[in-house]
Backbone:
């Protein structure tokens, strides 16, 4: 009778621990999912693109990734996904605004997130106006659909969370196994004494 009660208790706990881990994983993924509209900061997802984002991605890798990062995460230049807001700019994903910045460059303004100068056409004056439009389209699409890379702080939080869950689960399983093992040893010792 006592053995069945103990097994029921351990069975319940054995189901509860994976359930807790699953619920934690679901809540973490729900926190990381993009907004239902798929468009950041209220930009309309149905607006026409100024160019071809596929060509823009190739041009970005060749001309912009050095300063703005391979994944638009920033570096020397501003972060482009999610695009850093600029003072006095209501919609930094406005196609005309992006085309103007890429074409003419930008000197740092008071309140800008970066204090580096953006050269005209990223320093490659051979870019055509269509190339500039394709680059702007790529940045807009990346902000609408792409998931921005995790910040170092967010990545550390998630890593700590999952490592903690793993450690707690291992300690609990070790406890269950040691309890079962000690009972088994006690029964074997009692059987030998008889």
Residues:
């Amino acid at each position: 009778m006592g053995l069945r009660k103990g097994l029921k208790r351990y069975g319940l706990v054995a189901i509860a621990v994976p359930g807790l881990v699953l619920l934690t994983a679901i809540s973490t993924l729900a926190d990381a999912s993009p907004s239902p509209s798929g468009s950041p900061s209220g930009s309309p997802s149905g607006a026409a693109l100024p160019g071809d984002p596929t060509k823009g991605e190739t041009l970005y890798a060749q001309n912009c990734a050095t300063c703005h990062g391979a994944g638009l995460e920033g570096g020397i230049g501003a972060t482009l996904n999610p695009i850093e807001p600029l003072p006095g700019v209501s919609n930094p994903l406005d196609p005309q605004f992006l085309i103007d910045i890429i074409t003419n460059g930008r000197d740092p303004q008071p309140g800008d997130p970066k204090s580096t100068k953006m050269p005209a056409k990223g320093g490659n004056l051979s870019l055509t106006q269509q190339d500039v439009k394709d680059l702007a389209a790529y940045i807009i699409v990346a902000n609408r659909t792409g998931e921005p890379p995790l910040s170092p702080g967010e990545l550390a939080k998630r890593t700590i969370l999952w490592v903690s869950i793993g450690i707690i689960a291992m300690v609990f399983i070790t406890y269950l196994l040691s309890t079962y093992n000690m009972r088994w040893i006690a029964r074997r010792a009692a059987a030998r004494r008889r």
Remarks:
- The chain has a mean pLDDT of 81.
- The chain is about 60% helix and 0% strand.
- Residues 32 and 147 are 9 Å apart (CA to CA).
